[in-house]
Amino acid sequence: MTTKLILDVDTGTDDAVALMFAALHPELELVGVTTVSGNVPVECSTENSLRVLDTIGRGDIGVHPGLTHPLARWNTPVRRHLLTDPTRNMHGTYLPLPAATSKASTIGAVEFLIETYRGASDEITLVAVAPLSNLGAALALEPRLRDLVPRLVIMGGGHAMGNETPAAEFNIWADPEAAHVVLTAGFRDVTLVPLDATCQALVSRADCDRLAALDTPAGRTAAELIRHRIDAYTAGHAVDVPDAAPVPDALCTALLVDPDVVRTRRLHVDVETEGRLTRGHTVMDTRPDGQPPNCTVALHADGRRFVELLHTAFSIER
Question: Fewer Cβ neighbours under 10 Å: the N or C end of the chain?
Fold first, then answer.
């Protein structure tokens, strides 16, 4: 059975891989893309999303520009490595793909989310792999979204680790108020994919060679972008396997096809919004007598299974 989805992105390198997976896998139907500021400013994430879809022959999929800044903090978040060490910047500004020929929709991301879910006759999963600003704003305008969205998958947070700070993962850190709103809104089915799982789903240079050897637009593009991620991780991001890197956002689309690519646990999750050292920390209540769970949290992933899912999806040429 085909799973319909909307993908909410701040398209850098891993969002691009997730976009290609969602647009090409025969078990998925990507009905729309919403963009937001995060890895790059929203105008760049919009153009990058269009470039990716054009490259794989899916320029027919609508791309809807979203918020330019977080809900409560008017400063646009900037990854610390952009300011301190460009060699560790795995996203750049614009992806190294031909400029888009397709155009972004005139319908903005928040309006698209609200109107799509109000009018949906089929279930549409929402996969958010960026700061949660768009969804937070949409909930403020239409609180019924918590009942209209049948399943929400979020790439964000960390239990045992952070990446933007010792306590916080970037997507949640970039707009913690929006993340708090979303996680406490009462969605009936939330899957949270934090760093704990994504850092176990590593793609190596040898895996990139296999993807490139497919000689499809998606295979070649994924290989190039993931190699760039590996270069950045080699320059200073710590992972357990040398010459490899995680592709976090793509893990969120892969689990829609193969839920067993991750192992999960039901937990209550909220977000710290005020702490000087802990802003953006996802607080996961692991106590046996803790708060009632509101999320299914992926704490482990099968890296080899993930790579094979990528290989299968990118062998398809439209």
Answer: N
